[in-house]
Amino acid sequence: xxxxxGLPIFRYLQRDAELxxxxxxxxxxxxxxxxxxxxxxxxGDRVRATLDDGERLPRxxxxxxGLRVQYHDARLVTGIEAVRYDAQTRTAPFETPxxxxxxxxxxxxxxxxxxxxxPVDLSVKGTNLLDEEARKHTSIxxxxxxxxxxxxSLGVRASF
Length: 160
What we know:
Helices cover 0% and strands 51% of the residues.
């Protein structure tokens, strides 16, 4: 620890490591509804990382699985998405475990052309609708600062 601030001091060294992972995604059009389509996206990923001596690497993300259902046509895109992050208990020295959490969100974007025929997008987005206490294992400040709680945002985007 630093004598003046009391903060820990770390020295990082490059060493040989092995990373093994898997990433997969399934995307399918489920139905045609009016002038638009209903899509389904299922995805997930996982990685294991160790140094050659078997020690675990720090800040390796936990397994993640997500599902998104989305409708879109020429002017509207709307969807709902749930992502499950498992607990990360495979920690490196000086690292703390992270609890698992599920993030649920939705979004709606409506595009229209203004009088000058330039696109304008209006959007509404909700994140962390379950108001979970979520901490990203990959964050160096995860033990101090969680991800934001439930939020709603409104937006306007114009091209010129």
